[in-house]
Amino acid sequence: MTESRPPRHAGDAPRTGLGYRSVLAGALLLAAVFGGALALDDPRVKHLLDVRIGPGNQQAKPREGGNPSGDAGAPQPAEARVGTPPPGHEEADSPLGTPVPPAVGSDSYRFLAVNGDGSPVGYSPCRPLHYVVNADLAPAGSEQLVPDAIATISAATGISFIYDGTTGEQPSPQRPPYQPDAYGERWAPLLIAWTTPEVAPQLAGKVIGTGGSTHFSYDGGPKTFVTGGLDLDAPQMANELLNPDGHLYATAVILHELSHVMGLDHVEDPRQLMYPEIGTPEGLSAGDLNGLYELGKAQCRKDL
Ligand SMILES: [Zn+2]
């Protein structure tokens, strides 16, 4: 999520620390994360970029009445699942792309979610990540922002993105991760929506955008993101784009949110784009790039 924030004055504390962490931790146990803060610390741009993991901490459920085969905990046959596509759609035997190794080492990154073995939760690099854009309210001059940011994130992670075109789908915190009628028998594509606070209440007030992904696992097994959402407050972004360097800020917002979608959390290092407050939006820094590189090593998942 991205919020514009009230003007800072002396004594204002950055919106980081326990407040944010507790929101995130709590939300991971519930349905969705709406909280957090990343400020574009520019005297003109007062935005907070927040993170969302949603719509849920999805897990496969055993078939009603139990599993006749008795292998409780094992992945269910596709036909036994409710609300999940046939597994392995477009999943290759090896990663589709190769992430660009970061030029500079840095451990200044954090993951939104990790598995029991400490590995970060990311998307399978062995299948493309499809995305759709609800561009009904896309501001003039924004046409290249999303594709350019996608290309940057793809290079950093090695994840292959496929643009499936525009959609009329509206963002929703309860967005089903599987929508066969709309998108066929696969996980729903990442939804990038130019929208408004009226449609997306999490954009109310100073919020300018939200971003996050939904992870899926079988009964305590490793989690993998299967779909996500990135909502942009179109009126606020349009206003931003009126400025001569507005595209730089807009790009920073989208890159920050896409990094949340991929699995990065905020850091306390002000040199990183994932810092809760940034000065000039210089794009991804060494920590961000190293984190995204690690996310590109996520497990391949023919079982999802
Ligand atoms: Zn953020």
TrEMBL record:
The keyword Protease applies. Keywords: Hydrolase, Metal-binding, Protease, Zinc. The keyword Metal-binding applies. GO terms for cellular component: extracellular matrix. This is Peptidase M10 metallopeptidase domain-containing protein. GO terms for biological process: proteolysis. InterPro entries: MetalloPept_cat_dom_sf, Pept_M10_metallopeptidase. It holds the Pfam family Peptidase_M10. The lineage of its organism: Bacteria, Bacillati, Actinomycetota, Actinomycetes, Micrococcales. GO terms for molecular function: metalloendopeptidase activity; zinc ion binding. Residues 245-292 form the Peptidase M10 metallopeptidase domain. Residues 55-102 are annotated as: Disordered.
